[in-house]
């Protein structure tokens, strides 16, 4: 099951299969596609897992073991990669809230997000090599973009699993929060990113020509929200004199 809720303009997508450690089966892919359709227009998107044991533990081996041909394996990988691509290209900021371990395909889902926030007791690893396979959902390329090609090869080639603190140190995770304050922490971050300027910043840092970046700034400058915010700042400064 994949749940979709809205919280102050933020869409929260929860992979809710705790009995399978939130592993992804073919039906889960269909539900993810439907949930992403439903999240269109949200000011921010959060992807998380149910419970506190797993964010996503990878593909559901029990169900995916029925895939036995090269063509079917390619079709499965292509479908899930498209879902991860949709996360990466979502117009608003996307946060992966790592409530539990993100392993194998789960790590691939995590790096499709713009920002990764982790509870301090989780682990993350591209450990597909333990099954004599490799990341196929776009995770290898995204991992390399985050930590560099050599470190990505070291991690995905050996299947090394990292503690949250080390993942933060190398830039694989952006923010580590204590478990007791984790839920409120990621929700607070999502709300703070649920604004038009953050979406424009995402678009610009994804790569647009300089003139287009300036046009984005100018469009925000003349909007009512800018003048209202500027007035509040000027009034506050005047009262502090």
UniProtKB/TrEMBL annotation:
Record keywords: Fatty acid metabolism, Lipid metabolism
Entry keyword Lipid metabolism: yes
Pfam families according to UniProt: ECH_1 (PF00378)
GO molecular function: enoyl-CoA hydratase activity
Catalytic activity reported: a (3S)-3-hydroxyacyl-CoA = a (2E)-enoyl-CoA + H2O; a 4-saturated-(3S)-3-hydroxyacyl-CoA = a (3E)-enoyl-CoA + H2O
GO biological process per UniProt: fatty acid beta-oxidation
InterPro entries to which the protein is assigned, alphabetical: ClpP/crotonase-like_dom_sf, Enoyl-CoA_hyd/isom_CS, Enoyl-CoA_hydra/iso
Role this protein plays: Could possibly oxidize fatty acids using specific components.
Family: Belongs to the enoyl-CoA hydratase/isomerase family.
Protein's UniProt name: Enoyl-CoA hydratase
């Amino acid at each position: 099951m994949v749940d979709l809720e809205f919280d102050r303009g933020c869409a929260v997508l929860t992979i809710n299969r705790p009995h399978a450690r939130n592993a992804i089966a073919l039906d889960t892919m269909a539900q993810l596609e439907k949930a992403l359709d439903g999240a269109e227009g949200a000011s921010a998107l959060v992807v998380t897992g149910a419970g506190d044991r797993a964010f996503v533990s990878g593909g559901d081996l029990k169900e995916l073991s029925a895939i036995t041909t090269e063509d079917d394996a390619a079709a499965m990988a292509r479908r899930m990669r498209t879902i991860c691509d949709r996360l990466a290209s979502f117009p608003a900021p996307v946060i992966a809230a790592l409530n539990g371990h993100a392993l194998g395909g789960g790590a691939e889902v995590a790096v499709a997000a713009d920002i990764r926030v982790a509870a301090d007791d989780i682990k993350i690893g591209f450990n597909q090599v333990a099954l004599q396979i490799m990341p196929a959902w776009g995770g290898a390329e995204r991992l390399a973009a985050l930590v560099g090609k050599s470190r990505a090869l070291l991690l995905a080639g050996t299947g090394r699993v990292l503690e949250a603190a080390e993942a933060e140190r190398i830039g694989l995770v952006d923010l580590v929060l204590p478990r007791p304050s984790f839920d409120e922490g990621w929700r607070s971050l999502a709300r703070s990113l649920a604004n038009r300027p953050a979406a424009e910043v995402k678009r610009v840092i994804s790569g647009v020509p300089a003139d287009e970046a300036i046009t984005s700034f100018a469009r925000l400058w003349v909007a009512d929200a800018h003048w209202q915010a500027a007035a509040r700042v000027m009034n506050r400064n005047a009262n502090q004199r």
